[in-house]
């Protein structure tokens, strides 16, 4: 290999080492632990017990999980939560992104700063702020009661509604940034051209803006789905006993039940679910490229 050809690989070497050392190696360790028996002494045990039995290769953790109705319920809830959060996030983020996209440059910068600013705070601080807003004596219930919409305060968290509000609030800035970037890439002369050819405002929007921003919509939906599939803080602090996600189950099995193989197997199955979502995201693009005759 000539020096000119090897130069890109040398430049990428630090990133490759970082990926192998800090991402691939822990994932392989996760898979390894998921194939062990629980209990015993691992060198990390507490007292006379332990987290797992090394070198006791078995698929028992996976067999137990997949055979339990409880795990299937948690998995189903996690997936449905991801789909719900993705849908709600898009429903809010797309109109907001359209508004931000059409602002003058200085106003757009201020708007994007306002959108991103909450992400500079710790997620626990944000969740605590939401609890104050959604509490029975908080401003949201105060406004609803004051307007006569409800006769008594509503329970807005420690339930599914609280989880949906919390996760949507946490992922919304990322979705807005992705969608604004997608809208900014659209040629600004296309909408006037469509209007000049007789299309009304709504028809021009559906036939020009939406299709051209579709990659951004898909990416924002994927980010929202992945975020919700790994949701932990929101379900724990804003949800109730029924709002258990796969991430919460990993924590319970690993730190409460001290069953590392089961916790690791749950994490592996969560990663498989995330990989399936990524594959579904990539499939339409691959089909379109093949249909167009591309590689």
Automatic annotation (TrEMBL):
Subcellular location: Cell membrane
Domain ABC transmembrane type-1: 75-281
Record bears the keyword Transmembrane: yes
Residues that span the membrane, as ranges: 9-28, 74-97, 109-130, 160-183, 204-229, 264-283
UniProt keywords, alphabetically: Cell membrane, Membrane, Transmembrane, Transmembrane helix, Transport
GO biological process, any: transmembrane transport
One term under GO cellular component: plasma membrane
Keyword Transmembrane helix found: yes
Domain of life: Bacteria
Secretion signal span: none
Gene3D superfamilies listed in its UniProt record: MetI-like
Lipid bilayer topology: Multi-pass membrane protein
Pfam families, alphabetized: BPD_transp_1
Annotated family: Belongs to the binding-protein-dependent transport system permease family. CysTW subfamily.
PANTHER family: ABC TRANSPORTER PERMEASE PROTEIN (PTHR42929:SF5), INNER MEMBRANE ABC TRANSPORTER PERMEASE PROTEIN YDCU-RELATED-RELATED (PTHR42929)
Name of the protein described by the UniProt record: ABC transmembrane type-1 domain-containing protein
Originating species: Frigoriglobus tundricola
């Amino acid at each position: 290999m000539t020096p000119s050809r090897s130069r890109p690989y040398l430049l990428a070497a630090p990133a490759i080492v970082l990926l192998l050392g800090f991402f691939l190696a822990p994932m392989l360790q996760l898979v390894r632990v998921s194939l062990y028996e629980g209990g015993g002494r691992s060198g990390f045990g507490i007292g006379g017990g332990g987290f797992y039995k090394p070198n006791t290769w078995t698929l028992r953790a996976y067999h137990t999980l997949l055979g339990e109705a409880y795990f299937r319920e948690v998995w189903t809830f996690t997936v449905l939560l991801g789909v719900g959060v993705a849908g709600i996030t898009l429903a809010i983020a797309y109109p907001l992104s359209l508004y931000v996209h059409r602002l003058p440059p200085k106003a757009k910068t201020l708007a994007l700063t306002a959108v991103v600013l909450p992400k500079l705070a710790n997620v626990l601080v944000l969740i605590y702020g939401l609890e104050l807003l959604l509490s029975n004596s908080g401003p949201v219930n105060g406004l609803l009661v004051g307007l006569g919409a409800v006769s008594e305060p509503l329970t807005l968290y420690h339930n599914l509604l609280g989880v949906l509000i919390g996760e949507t609030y946490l992922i919304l800035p990322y979705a807005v940034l992705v969608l604004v970037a997608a809208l900014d890439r659209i040629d600004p002369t296309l909408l006037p051209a469509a209007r000049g050819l007789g299309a009304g405002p709504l028809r021009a929007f559906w036939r020009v803006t939406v299709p051209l921003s579709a990659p951004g919509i898909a990416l924002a939906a994927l980010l929202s789905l992945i975020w919700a599939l790994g949701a932990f803080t929101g379900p724990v602090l804003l949800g109730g006993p029924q709002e258990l996600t796969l991430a919460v189950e990993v924590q319970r099995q690993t730190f409460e039940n001290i069953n590392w193989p089961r916790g690791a197997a749950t994490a592996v199955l969560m990663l498989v679910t995330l990989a399936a979502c990524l594959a579904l995201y990539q499939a339409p693009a691959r089909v379109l490229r093949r249909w167009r005759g591309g590689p």
